[in-house]
TrEMBL record, chains A, B:
This is (S)-2-haloacid dehalogenase. It comes from Pistricoccus aurantiacus. SUPFAM superfamilies: HAD-like (SSF56784). Coiled coil: none annotated. GO terms for molecular function: (S)-2-haloacid dehalogenase activity.
Length: 232, 232
């Protein structure tokens, strides 16, 4: 990767970056009496997805999510019923798009960027959560880490996208509201663009890669990408 | 590893398993108005330590801890001063032993198990936190993941202990109150024993290794180890 390399393909993270996970809050409010328990659950889900990959193991993201919910119930003395599990799956299947998603995707597509997604979630039959949220048509391809059975931020996940698209990782810019995702993408040779959603922030540290682009909304992020890496 | 292999060396995780991290709570209470913010911080610290290792990067655990504290301050609109950082380090240096630690370690040592520690924390000059807590004399060796520059649960961390002790990983039983640690240890060929400290629980899932031993206190855990794997 050289400094003058510029990405032509923008790779979007899905959960929380494009789709709004706060639709899950009423479930956590009911089970734990606190809607912010969603944050604890999501952090534990990500932590254990990384644990599995570091350990050379794999289970679908959705199964780990159910396990993390049951773990939290044990910790907090709460009860999780089969109906709660069904509601978790159902709500995850109909997460709405963040309001800044369609304007940003429209801008990036119109100036000529190729757009794909890469998610920790397993693939699902159509209509997918992205399609239900009205975002399906923006993307050439929708990648799941299940193809390599390793979760982000393992380098194999970003290389999967590059290989399937027939490009180098330096042709990719990963967009996410989770720094752990841009850290991994940048370590694998991609560019990284960070959008600061609520309950997310940068983690400063001398050895921690800073994102190439930081924005408070996807619309601003899209403009920064267009300005920095103009499409020929 | 065969089913009749039994471990002769017990490898203890340190933070939260032997030493009580709740001594940090007053700091989190002051900064975030909520002592349980400690839990969010510790989960994010573990998550980002795993992120770094998956990305082929390394920074000392203490530095990531400071970064995670600053990240949380950004998220919650709180302020972290240099004095707060100093207090974090100071409190982490004098975490007390859990009350069940000395009785359990005494029992295991007296029946002939060899005892060592393996921590994500960087090594520190004497007196170390373990020594200050009165636990230093129980252990033949104190290992830090800094030697391999990968955080637990990377398999290299457990193999480090086996190599340095001149044994196979199947000779080791890893004791921790964090399932992510026993998952990694078991995937690397060790036995895993889980002690259920407050705010910790098992994560059930079909592909997630169950610990060989589960206990609610280190004293009970020690008795189970002695009963299951009697020393010749």
């Amino acid at each position: 990767m050289t400094l003058d390399t510029q990405p032509s393909i923008i790779v979007f993270d899905v959960n929380e970056t494009l789709l709004d996970i706060t639709i899950l809050e009423p479930l956590f409010e009911r089970i734990f009496g606190n809607r912010l328990a969603l944050r604890e659950w999501f952090a534990q889900l990500i932590l254990y997805s990384q644990t599995m990959t570091l350990s050379g193991l794999y289970a679908p993201f959705g199964e780990l999510g159910i396990g993390a919910l049951r773990m939290m119930a044990s910790i907090h003395g709460a009860t999780v019923t089969d109906r709660d599990i069904e509601e978790l799956k159902e709500r995850m299947g109909r997460m709405p798009a963040h309001p800044d998603a369609i304007p940003a995707l429209t801008r990036l597509r119109d100036v000529g960027f190729r757009l794909v997604t890469l998610t920790n979630s397993a693939s699902s039959p159509s209509p997918t959560p992205l399609e239900r949220a009205g975002l399906g048509d923006f993307f050439e391809r929708a990648f799941s880490v299940e193809a390599v059975e390793k979760f982000k931020p393992a380098p194999e996940t970003y290389r999967l996208v590059a290989q399937e698209m027939g490009v180098e990782t330096s042709d990719l810019c990963l967009v996410a509201c989770h720094l752990w995702d841009t850290i991994g993408a940048q370590a694998a040779g991609c560019r990284g663009a960070f959008v600061a959603r609520p309950h997310n922030a940068l983690l400063p540290g001398p050895e921690v890669p800073s994102p190439d682009i930081v924005a408070s909304a996807l619309t601003d992020l899209a403009e920064q990408i267009i300005e920095r890496w103009p499409v020929d």
